Amino acid sequence: MRRVVVFLALALVAESAGEWKVAVPDYAWSFPRDHWAHDGYRTEWWYFTGQLASEGDPERRFGYQFTLFRIGVVEQAPRLDSDWAATHAVMGHAAITDFRSKTHVFSEVLYREMPLLGSFGRYPETRIGWSRGPAGTSVLWTLDWNGEGFELAAEDARLEMGFRLETRAVKPSVFQGPNGFSRKSEAPGAASLYYSFTRLETSGDLTLEGERFRVGGESWMDKEFSSSHLGPDQIGWDWFSLQLDDGRELMLYLMRARDGTVDYARGTLVSRAGEPRYLGREAIALEPRQQWTSPESGARYPIGWRIRLEDEGLDLRVRALVDDQENRSALPGGVYYWEGAVSVTGPEGEPLGRGYVELTGYGEGSRPPV
Questions:
Q1: Can you give the pLDDT at residue 11?
Q2: CB-based contact 200:218 (threshold 8 Å)
Q3: Integer Rg of the chain from CA
Q4: In whole angstroms, what is the distance from residue 206 CA to residue 98 CA?
Q5: CATH of the domain at 197
Q6: pLDDT tens digits for 147-201?
Q7: Mean pLDDT over all residues of the chain?
Q8: Number of domains in the chain
Q9: Least packed by Cβ within 10 Å: which of 14, 149, 258, 366?
Q10: Which residue in 11, 350, 52, 358 sits closest to 207, CA to CA?
């Protein structure tokens, strides 16, 4: 669903005076057109995560995240003959986790959508979206479609981190919910239009602490657009994207009420052939097993889980590969959330796969206003 976290951007932009489009069950999809931006929806994101290994040293492994957000400021552009009369903001999040050193580095950008700062392309242009890099970085953050997959790039010169990756779809895209309609609550309008590429063969270059690595592995891509994700009584979500070694993939999201209990949950189990099976809340048994408290934000996150899908014969143990994978914004507003690489094992510790988990709404004042 993802995804994250439009905390800061939405806190900084004004409320629209008009009405945004809402997600509807009978949306008429058209690919590849729908890989590009959608006017009229308040929130849209392109979200990539993956686990990569150095080609020179396969034991040197990394996790990465890249998310590009399109955030609605006003539904209709002001009547100004100016490029500064923007209707949207561009936000980007990028992170790298080094599994060997147990370090996690996070970078971000936030600009109004305009020619000099960042923008979104129109189909059939190759470029889906771009923005300037962080202060002091000359390289643009970019997202492109190459006909077989996505190409993405981000860099932060000050942090000496970044990546330039090329992906190719190993399996076809899949809708997350019937016809891509993904409800998040029983509240009216709390839904998104949502699809994923659950396996993207990935290769490219990754830089961490100024050292460059040629890397390869697999990624997961989510695309969502909507105007409302959370119901009025919801505080955040736990989201799982798991790639199993038997060729299947599992997506789960659990929406949490203000008292911390799960009040809505859905999932998708994708077969080896790419066929989705949609899971209701009754089919999902999830038990947090380990916790970690951030010394920076004070938020206490689950970082280990048991997940059971009895009808599918699945009994999984999911565990963070690094405890501290909290993304903490340096921009005003104090945005923070946990976005991390995980391992998937069986009851006896046997390796079964890998994936990513996103945790929002943990800690004081961290509810996503979406």
A1: 40
A2: yes
A3: 19
A4: 11
A5: 2.40.370.10
A6: 999 999 999 999 999 999 999 999 999 999 999 999 999 888 899 999 999 999 9
A7: 92
A8: 1
A9: 14
A10: 52
Q: Which residues constitute the domain of residue 219?
A: 7-13+30-359
Report how far residue 52's alpha carbon sits from residue 62's, in angstroms, rounded to the nearest whole number. 5
What is the C-alpha to C-alpha distance for residues 326 and 329, in angstroms, rounded to an integer? Answer: 10
Contact between 112 and 132 under an 8 Å Cβ cutoff? The reply is no
Contact 128, 36 (CB under 8 A): yes
- Residue 171: CB atoms within 10 A of its CB come to 17
Q: Indicate the pTM of the whole model.
A: 0.93
Residue 22 lies in a domain: no
- Tell whether 23 is covered by a domain: no
Measured distance CA(165)–CA(183) in Å, rounded: 32
Locate 194 and state its tokens. 């949502």
Q: What are phi and psi of 27, to 5 degrees?
A: -55, 135
Structure tokens at 74: 């006003």
Is 303 within a domain?
A: yes
Q: 255: number of CA atoms within 13 Å, CB side?
A: 26
14 pLDDT above the threshold of 50:
no
As a whole number, mean pLDDT of residues 238-249 equals: 98
99-115 burial by CB neighbour count: b if 16+ within 10 A, else e?
Answer: beeeebbbbbbbbbbbe
> Dihedral, CA atoms, 79, 82, 85, 88, nearest 10 degrees?
130
